[in-house]
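Q: I'm writing up a methods section and want to include an example of the input and output format. Could you take the sequence below and give the corresponding predicted structure tokens, formatted cleanly so I can copy it straight into the document?
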Amino acid sequence: MDSGIGLLAATAAVRRLRPDADLVLSLDPDGMPWGPRTSEDLTERAVAVAEAAAAHRPDALIIGCNTATVHALTTLRALLEPGIPVIGTVPAIKPAAAGGGPFAIWATPATTGSPYQRGLIQDFADGVTVTEVPCYGLAEAVEHADEAAITAAVAAAAALTPDDVTTVVLGCTHYELVAERIRAAVQRPGRPTLVLHGSAGAVAAQALRRIGELPAPEAAADGTLTVLLSGREGALPTPALAYEEGRQLQAISPAR
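A: Here is the clean output for your methods example:
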């Protein structure tokens, strides 16, 4: 679940690990964007989206959004667990810090400098040089597959990223859809290849662990796809097809 197509990265990761899984994507086009909403309002929207998904009796629910995880994870777990395990999305600060070098966290302006993110830095990156980079308009540009706006937003965030950074944490799920464009913008000549840390793979693996399943990438690719748009069954939003993750999902048979 997510307000928009930021959930594509985690969904594609689940698909790679379990091509036989039936997938339900619950988006909120009527309520997006969630970022500017109050915590109470955002949680209300997230509950509605989660309940729409829960009606399909899933084995687990992934919150494919950092912002929704911050504000609504506790509420959703109280509502749905233990019947449906709820897996949140947290920026990959811990593995980035383990590398030891200076790293940057690219996140939405609302998340950058927030007590939530600062707490993660304090817990997992104490003693490592960390630069928080606000990415103005990048999530919105990715959501609409606006090429010019993506280029401009990536360039602006790259300009705020110190030259000695060796690793970038992608602190918004939308950013994983344009990861290679971010790498190209931040990579400095003569330096080792920039390391990018997203959350999609870890979130997908955690979802399988929570339900006692193992990865089976060799399984038959016969899983189905259901798309919910503010509770109504529909199709993947057109901008999703601008990304490889969306095109791969479009090829899945719809649920019957």
